[in-house]
Structure formats: structure tokens, C-alpha cells
Amino acid sequence: MSKFRMLVAAVISAALVLSLTACGEEDIAARVNGEVIKKSELDAQVEELKEQYPQMFEGADAEGRLLDFQQRLLDNMINNVLIRQAAEDRGITVSDDEVATQIDELKSGFQSEEQFTQALEQAGMDVDSLEQQVRDQLITERLLEQLTSDVEIADADVEQYYEQNQSQFVEEAAVHAAHILFNSEDKATAEEVLSEIRAGGDFAALAKEYSQDPASAENGGDLGWPTTPFVPEFQEAADALEVGEVSDLVQTTFGWHIIKVVEKREDRQKDLDEVRDQVEQILLQQQNADVYQQYLEELKAEAEIEILIPELAVPVQDGPSGETTETTE
Fold it and tell me: How many alpha carbons fall within 13 Å on the CB side of residue 144?
């Protein structure tokens, strides 16, 4: 442990002695370099899990699963403290404005402040805990950027990964279709539009005029290449059509469709040049994860970690020898 960290730990420990009346010894789950992790905070996380996944804590093995979750949650809380402490040692900071900006981005995904607040409550969180989570995440990201700044991916590694994992890079057979969507009660209009198309009408123009799917209507009904299969009735009809062919009316849960097939493709193995960037990103993420995990293990090996709940004591790397001990009181 660095001299700075030891000094901080000593100051924190002294402060704790003075504040034990406010934070009782019974409310301490662990100390990490003198910094307290409260048992009440651990218990709150366990209760969140119980509320969200009650079935996981039922049955004959419920007690064992509960203990396992408690150990994992406490270990994660210890890791968060270690990372935060290490970031402080490296001068990594996150401002309140940066945290607020991230939270504003999260809020933008909700229709109202009330909906956002409800989502927080359902997740067992409040604004304070969200702010801390966002701050910890930003700090971790910046620390990881420092740790991995010199990570490089060799061409030979890219080629090896591609050769050993070609099944990940298969372009599956698919249908590129366009459609005109009508409401379920509007079959008569759908039949009229279909007759107009059969008589030579412009499919794209009619889609823009009549389709009830606004996203594709702007593009003449074009749905592009699908990333997931269409609903079964639509998929079956599209598969049966030839390129350029237009279907009869097809009914799905969305309404009535007139489908036109634009292109079709068969299964195809993508070559390395097509997926090189993708492979590099996969390898980069793996390397970053390895660097982070190794760094975390080094922090644990150098840290003073006390787990004050005996049944939750787990092996902790203690010192450069790599020996594992269980530190409890």
C-alpha cells in the first residue's frame, strides 16, 4: 500500500474511532484500507435482489444462494472502494457537472420526470445512489483508459481469432422487403391499393401515401435488411416471394400488409477484411478486461481488507507472496 494510502487509512481509522456512536460497530460489514462499508448498505442491495428476483431465494437451496449473493455483493462493494481509492491516488476526478450530464442523458430516455423516478424506485435506487453509481462508473472508465492506453492488437492475433471463430462471422440468409401497412379495420382500402399496384402503380409512392408504418413510409415502405426475423406470417409470405414480386394481402397482429421483396441473400461467410474492425474490438475488450482484472487483483494483494461478518469472509489476496487469507474480526 502506498504511503499516501496508508496515511489516508490512518486518518480515516482515527475518524471512525470518534464516530462509532453514530455508525455502530454492528453496522460495519467490512473495512477497506480503513474505509468502512456499511452492513446496512449491503443489506439494502440484498433486499433489492429479493424484490426483483424472489424466485431465486426460494426452495431447498435458498439459504446457500442467499449467502453466495451476499458474498458476491460484498466483494463487488470492496472492488468499488479499491478502484475509487486507486483513482484518487492517480488524481482521477469526476466533477458534479459531469455526473449531472450523464444523469440528464439517462433522463432523456424517459417521457417524463415521473417515469424516470418510478424506474429508479423499481430498481431500488434513489437519486443519491444513482449519482454515486454514475460517478463510480465514470471514475472506473477513466482509470481503465489510463491502464490500457498502450494496449495494441497485433494483426496476427486478429487473423488467429478469425480463423478459430469463423462461425461468429456468418451473414445469415435474409429477405430485404418493403411493405405498405393498413389498420386491421381498413382491409377495403388495402385491397384498392393492391389493385392499383397490380395495375402498374408506384409501390413506393403508394407506401408514402397510405402506409400506417411511419418509419418505413418515409422510405417508400423500405424495411431494409432485418436484424431480427419478421413476425411469422410476414416472414413466411416474404420467403415465398421472388425478388420484385408483390404479395397478396397478409394479415398480422399489426394489420394488413402488402409486401414487396427488394433483395434476397443466402448464408455467406464474411471474409476477414469485412470484419477486421469487429475482431479488433472483440480482442481489445478482452485485453482491457484482462488488464483491469489483473490490476484489481494487485490492489487486493496490497490492501488491508477486514470482513467483519464471519460467514461472509472470503479469501483475500494479502501481500506480494500471493497467499490467500481470510481477514475477519
Answer: 16
